[in-house]
Design a protein that fits this description.
6-stranded parallel β-sheet, single chain, elongated
Length: 299
């Protein structure tokens, strides 16, 4: 149980609603900021303003998956009022407070460092990334179906990157009957791909692989689908870039060539916010329970 734990949830989207709900079920005391337009009522939740005394009572500060920008702006889907996390807000947090987000910009990292606060970036965790790869792959498939006039079954698909998202993406396409090739950057990944029944190639040879591609899914967050690569791709091809913004595709040249290229980061929160929020909530709850157990052992 989280009885006696005070959690401040600052901004966010539908994923935060799952975090709030699950923590509330375990008897945490929860205050929310930036939820004044929320239509759904969650019993026992306190609506608060951006005041220093709100932060001073926090054991946990939960920020959106994207944290805040380098101006301190916090995104929220449930308020029209801009939210800004300021230095004085972070300075008001108790030393034991844990700041919990998906990924942090330098602004947030520096504020936590200056104030000696523990910062947890959940998207760095293998368990989160693995679980999130499932709704990412499902969302990418949904986009591919919507944007094409052919079946995935029998289509020529390329997945760039064989990390957690790339692996799940290739496996999902294979399950739908696609012919899957995977672009790898390490020789040791070739065996893993071959064992799975995919055709591996080094990303340095990408230009030679795209002549007959129908769907290309990129997970590599560097410019890899260059104008040179695009010049060799058929116009019918569809590119779905799953890498974090700005992605790994020359979108300007793709448009010039008439190739449909879509940047689609953050799919878990778009296509399956309940599942994605539940994944985040489970990690947060497990972390807090571990902290409680550690304190009890020390006492």
């Amino acid at each position: 149980m989280l009885t006696g734990v005070r959690i401040i949830v600052l901004g966010g989207d539908a994923r935060q609603l799952e975090v709030i709900q699950k923590c509330a079920e375990l008897d945490a005391t929860i205050s929310v900021v930036g939820f004044d337009k929320l239509e759904r009522s969650i019993p026992g939740i306190e609506q608060q303003e951006m005041e220093d005394d709100v932060f001073a009572s926090a054991d946990v500060l939960v920020l959106p998956v994207v944290g805040c920008d380098d101006e301190g702006k916090v995104s929220t889907s449930f308020s029209d009022t801009p939210l800004f996390l300021k230095k004085e807000h972070v300075a008001a947090l108790p030393e034991h407070c844990i700041v919990f987000t998906g990924m942090a910009k330098p602004f947030l990292r520096e504020l936590c460092r200056e104030n000696g606060l523990r910062l947890v970036e959940v998207l760095d965790r293998d368990d989160i990334a693995l679980y999130n790869s499932i709704p990412t792959a499902e969302g990418a498939i949904a986009m591919a179906i919507r944007e094409t006039d052919f079946t995935i079954h029998g289509s020529e698909c390329i997945v760039l990157g064989l990390g957690r998202t790339g692996f799940t993406m290739a496996k999902t396409l294979q399950g739908l009957g696609a012919n899957v090739r995977v672009g790898i950057r390490r020789e040791e990944d070739a065996a893993r791909a071959a064992i799975m029944g995919w055709k591996p190639f080094m990303t340095t040879d990408l230009a030679a692989q795209t002549g007959e591609v129908d769907l290309l899914f990129n997970t590599i967050p560097t410019m890899i689908i260059t104008a040179q690569i695009l010049s060799k791709m058929p116009q019918k091809a569809v590119i779905i870039d799953l890498a974090s913004a700005p992605g790994g595709c020359d979108f300007r040249y793709a448009e010039k060539r008439g190739i449909k290229a879509l940047l689609a980061p953050g799919l878990p929160g778009i296509v399956a916010p309940k599942t994605a929020g539940g994944i985040i909530a489970d990690v947060l709850i497990r972390l807090l329970l571990e902290e409680q157990n550690a304190r009890e052992v020390e006492q």
